Amino acid sequence: MGVIQRIKKPTTRKGKKVLLSREPKAIEGPKQCIFLQARNPSERARNVLKDIYNLKKPDAAYLSRKNDFVPFEDATLIEKLCYKKEASLFGVSSHSKKRPHNVVLGRTFDYNILDMIELGVDSFKAMSEFHNIKVLTGIKPCLLFNGPAWLLNQDLKRLKNVLTDFFHRDKVETIRLQGLEHVLSFTATDDGTIYLRSYRILLKKSGQRTPRVELEEIGPSIDFKLRRTMLASDDLCIEACKVPKELKPIAKKNRSTDAFGTKLGRIHMGKQDINRLQTRKMKGLRKSAEEKKQMLLKKKLAKKTAKQATASA
Amino acid sequence: MDIVNEILEREQKKAEKYKPITVEKHLELDIDVGTLLATDTNDLDIKSLSSDSERDTYLQSLARDNAQLLLNKIWELPTERIDEAIVVRLPAPKTVLPRSKPVPKPKPLSKWQEFAKAKGITKRKKDKLQWDEQLQKWVPLYGFKRSAAEKQKDWLIEVPQHIDPLTDMYEKKSSEKSEKVAKNELQRLKNIARAKKVKIPRVGLPVTSDKASATQLSTAAVVAKASTASLGKFQDKLPKEKEARGKGVHELIPGKERKRKAPIPTPQVEKENNLNLIDRILNKRPKIDMEKAVSKHIHEEQTQRSEEKKNMKPSKGPRKAKGKTNFSAKKPKAGKGQRNPGKKTPGRKRR
């Protein structure tokens, strides 16, 4: 008899490796990002995304083909491309009469859209227009959020989280002091304008251990205007922000040290299931056929008496 | 005193040479050193932000101040030396960022693994190569060169005394092997179904290469008979036919599942139940059907009014025309052919 329907497994070793690498992990690496073009993006919108791509570079891909879709109406293409490219951040550029120079920034969770925020580009000065030395690619920038609006406006609050997600790169334990050379500053006003500025840090002598900071603008310099938003529900957010059990710090319970420095611990034992305990098997303890019969009879009798007792009561 | 003054003066001169590293802020910054993030909630200077010429310098000075504050915090942290570079150990980030994929779930155990865990059975490691006395060489446990060695060993298989002398032992062996593979595959699928909590039907008859037993056959017959739309109710019966019972029958035939009788309650429990029942009946409150009551009230009012009208004399004079014509200057919009000026229609779709 042959096997009818096998559940498909990867046929090659490499395919298996790829599938394994795509499985969810407790500790995730830096989020990958894709940049794509929607319907007829303007040059300005395209260049904005290109500059953001340059800032994000080792963890990003710029897809140069135009796609006929509107992110806020149908985001399936984004989800599909994110799945294909293993990305969870995306940027889309588009342009229309109603929404000129449109840039949509967003992120996905489990290949489904989590947040999507639409920004209009009011003015833009590209990185290449600043003629000076740029920072190294792949460097972790310092992020500055200026203005009370970042705290008061709910949309801006989420946008702050999205921007942090975009630019913070990766969680690091140590950082080289000389490697702190990039500052991204986001200034939000009450009317929903966001000024993005990017600076290189110059560390000057201050006569003390801590240096004096001077900044030099390296671009890009973008003035965004907040437009539509599509934010995740609170439930989904909580689900997405879950911390795996193995990463949570373990609380040390029932441990103490006495005056002499001896470690003391209190142990709680679970209840042992005695019924299933296997004791030593011995021939002498085995029940003979007659004994078994008698036990059965006894059981029957007990049942009968119980029945009678209930009937009489 | 002169020396003290001199030293103080010198220090002051030294300090004047450099620009300060302190920044004064009305509200303190919210700094998350772990992500290198600083949030400044102080009010912005709207005047310089709105003017085109001053904006960039203002933003730069603002960013400089905040960057200085952030770097001051970083420089306070303890430093280390790794490969001739001075590094700072950052604390854990405070900002919570969403994951890109859900938290991994532990792989569900197979039935055997569960059993082995309960019994404390651990896997024993087997050597990949074993010495074969018959062939006088090392034979792998599986894989490359295993089947060749097997073939070499089994150049002749004895037919046992108790079976048909004409059986092909090689065929028997291969069929046994394929059966084992099939069984393993079935168990694998069952494990997958169990892990995904899919209910799978019981397999009626175990696959056997030999003859089926009488009970198996009778089970199969009963199940087959019940496989009609009316669950075999109108099927003819054979003389002396026995209804099969037990495993395999009631799981496969709907409605054949035996329901367990509730255990006989003890007198105390029975008494309590009865008392509860009486209490429930006695404590019942009349339910008020609000809808019914309201409609009843309305009906009474209407009848009363109609009677009043009947008693009154009919009014004189011509009746004025009621109802207004709606003169609206607006052009009717697209709305599926129904004109309803009062209702706002979505109109043409714009993108």
Automatic annotation (TrEMBL), chain A:
<dbReference type="InterPro" id="IPR007109">
    <property type="entry name" value="Brix"/>
</dbReference>
<feature type="domain" description="Brix">
    <location>
        <begin position="31"/>
        <end position="235"/>
    </location>
</feature>
<comment type="similarity">
    <text>Belongs to the RPF2 family.</text>
</comment>
<dbReference type="GO" id="GO:0019843">
    <property type="term" value="F:rRNA binding"/>
</dbReference>
<protein>
    <recommendedName>
        <fullName>Ribosome production factor 2 homolog</fullName>
    </recommendedName>
</protein>
<dbReference type="GO" id="GO:0000027">
    <property type="term" value="P:ribosomal large subunit assembly"/>
</dbReference>
<dbReference type="GO" id="GO:0005730">
    <property type="term" value="C:nucleolus"/>
</dbReference>
<dbReference type="Pfam" id="PF04427">
    <property type="entry name" value="Brix"/>
</dbReference>
<dbReference type="GO" id="GO:0000463">
    <property type="term" value="P:maturation of LSU-rRNA from tricistronic rRNA transcript (SSU-rRNA, 5.8S rRNA, LSU-rRNA)"/>
</dbReference>
<dbReference type="InterPro" id="IPR039770">
    <property type="entry name" value="Rpf2"/>
</dbReference>
<keyword id="KW-0539">Nucleus</keyword>
TrEMBL record, chain B:
<dbReference type="GO" id="GO:0030687">
    <property type="term" value="C:preribosome, large subunit precursor"/>
</dbReference>
<feature type="compositionally biased region" description="Basic residues">
    <location>
        <begin position="330"/>
        <end position="351"/>
    </location>
</feature>
<feature type="region of interest" description="Disordered">
    <location>
        <begin position="235"/>
        <end position="351"/>
    </location>
</feature>
<comment type="function">
    <text>Involved in ribosomal large subunit assembly.</text>
</comment>
<dbReference type="Pfam" id="PF04939">
    <property type="entry name" value="RRS1"/>
</dbReference>
<protein>
    <recommendedName>
        <fullName>Ribosome biogenesis regulatory protein</fullName>
    </recommendedName>
</protein>
<feature type="compositionally biased region" description="Basic and acidic residues">
    <location>
        <begin position="235"/>
        <end position="256"/>
    </location>
</feature>
<comment type="similarity">
    <text>Belongs to the RRS1 family.</text>
</comment>
<dbReference type="InterPro" id="IPR007023">
    <property type="entry name" value="Ribosom_reg"/>
</dbReference>
<keyword id="KW-0690">Ribosome biogenesis</keyword>
<dbReference type="GO" id="GO:0005730">
    <property type="term" value="C:nucleolus"/>
</dbReference>
<feature type="compositionally biased region" description="Basic residues">
    <location>
        <begin position="312"/>
        <end position="323"/>
    </location>
</feature>
<dbReference type="GO" id="GO:0042273">
    <property type="term" value="P:ribosomal large subunit biogenesis"/>
</dbReference>
<dbReference type="GO" id="GO:0000447">
    <property type="term" value="P:endonucleolytic cleavage in ITS1 to separate SSU-rRNA from 5.8S rRNA and LSU-rRNA from tricistronic rRNA transcript (SSU-rRNA, 5.8S rRNA, LSU-rRNA)"/>
</dbReference>
<keyword id="KW-0539">Nucleus</keyword>
<feature type="compositionally biased region" description="Basic and acidic residues">
    <location>
        <begin position="286"/>
        <end position="311"/>
    </location>
</feature>
